[in-house]
Amino acid sequence: MSKEKTALPMAQITRAARLFATLADPSRLRILQSLLSTGPRTVGELVEATGLGQANVSKHLSILHNARLVERRREGVFVRYLSSDPVIAQLCSIVCAKIERDVRQDLASLGGESSPPMD
Q1: Quick one: angle between helices 26-38 and 86-109, nearest 10?
Q2: 25, 67 in Cβ contact below 8 A?
Q3: What's the CATH code, domain 11-84?
Q4: Using 50, 70 and 90 to split pLDDT, how confident is the model at 3?
Q5: Above 60 in pLDDT, residue 119?
Q6: pTM for the complete prediction?
Q7: Amino acid 8: pLDDT
Q8: Is residue 111 very low, low, confident or very high in pLDDT (cuts 50, 70, 90)?
Q9: CB-side exposure of 90: number of CA atoms within 13 Å?
Q10: How would DSSP label each residue in 41-91?
Q11: Pair 107, 113: CB distance under 8 Å
Q12: CA distance 63 to 74
């Protein structure tokens, strides 16, 4: 017997699509990766960590904040940004595991034995 899943309402599908669109930008993923791996950071620290320009980092942080993926915390004259949703870390882990599995399968089909390092 198979369990039938209830279809998501269109409003939920639309919100999911918006979330995935937010996550589809490589610069935003680099910022999130930095925050997830090292914890709260200022815009300047994120500029240094990602190699992106200050205006670019600020723009992407605003988008991530509006999507409720990062929080802002004021510390004196600084504002630190941090990942605000642990589910995003889980999602990134799941996606990265799939990519690594796909790379291994591609290499195996080409006769390779090991996967390249995933940065």
Answers
A1: 110
A2: no
A3: 1.10.10.10
A4: low
A5: no
A6: 0.78
A7: 84
A8: confident
A9: 4
A10: B-HHHHHHHH---HHHHHHHHHHHHHTTSEEEEEETTEEEEEE--HHHHHH
A11: yes
A12: 18
Q: Which residues contact 8 (CB under 8 A, 6 or more apart)?
A: 16
Enter the tokens of residue 76.
């004196």
Distance CA 65, CA 60 (A): 8
Q: What is the mean pLDDT of the chain?
A: 89
Tokens of 34: 């930095």
Q: Which of 67, 79, 90 is nearest to 17 (CA)?
A: 67
C-beta atoms surrounding 92 within 10 Å: 16
> Which residue in 64, 71, 52 sits closest to 18, CA to CA?
64
4-56 pLDDT, tens digit per residue, is 677 889 999 999 999 999 999 999 999 999 999 999 999 999 999 999 999 99
SS3 40: coil
Sequence spans of domains, the chain = 11-84, 85-119
Q: What is the DSSP letter of 39?
A: -
